[in-house]
Fold DUF1801 domain-containing protein.
Amino acid sequence: MPASRAVRHATPADTRAAVDALMATLVHPHKPAIEALRAAILAVDPSIAEGVKWNAPSFRTHEYFATFHLRAKQGIVLILHLGAKARALPADGLAIDDRDGLLRWLGPDRAQVTFADAADASRRTPSLQSLLRQWIACV
């Protein structure tokens, strides 16, 4: 791994331990579903690591690409993004096959996935994992 990548995510917040500590104190109506989705996201690819960004569990490969939105008023919300820096995008947007309609686009490089509750999250986890495989290829 190049030194720039090693240094980029070398803070105490960029660790599984930081997410474990956050989750240990988290009071949230959907905490069990968030934990299940956390495990499902990590299972997508062995290169995925986690950390705490914006006081929420976040996931990265060489850049952060997904962050839970813990203050959402309804359901369980995961924001998909392409890291902290703006980047050039293809003219026709990201090539993401969203055959199950999970994505609500918030911008050309950002989308939201919302699950109503734990049952909805469980039922749609395979679709989420398929989307995430495509998403991380764009990061």
